[in-house]
Input
Amino acid sequence: MIMVTIAGIIKKVGTTTKVKTGAWRTFIPTVTDKCKGCKICESFCPDGCIKVNPKTKKAEIDYDFCKGCLICENECPFKAITSKMEDK
Output
């Protein structure tokens, strides 16, 4: 199955962690100190680019793969993720 997007081609579903797509982003999410490490953002991220660091117990975003969909910001029950327009 081929999925065509405006910015490029994803040849196989589930390969977003192998294709750096962060350059597509318009908005950039940022994890604040309010993060409780609940992993809700991690479970909702469609690109699999959010992981909770086991040492710090805080979410970390891999910006090489984050497309800035802001689902994480919307789903965070602690409002620990904020966003702004990316400077490019």
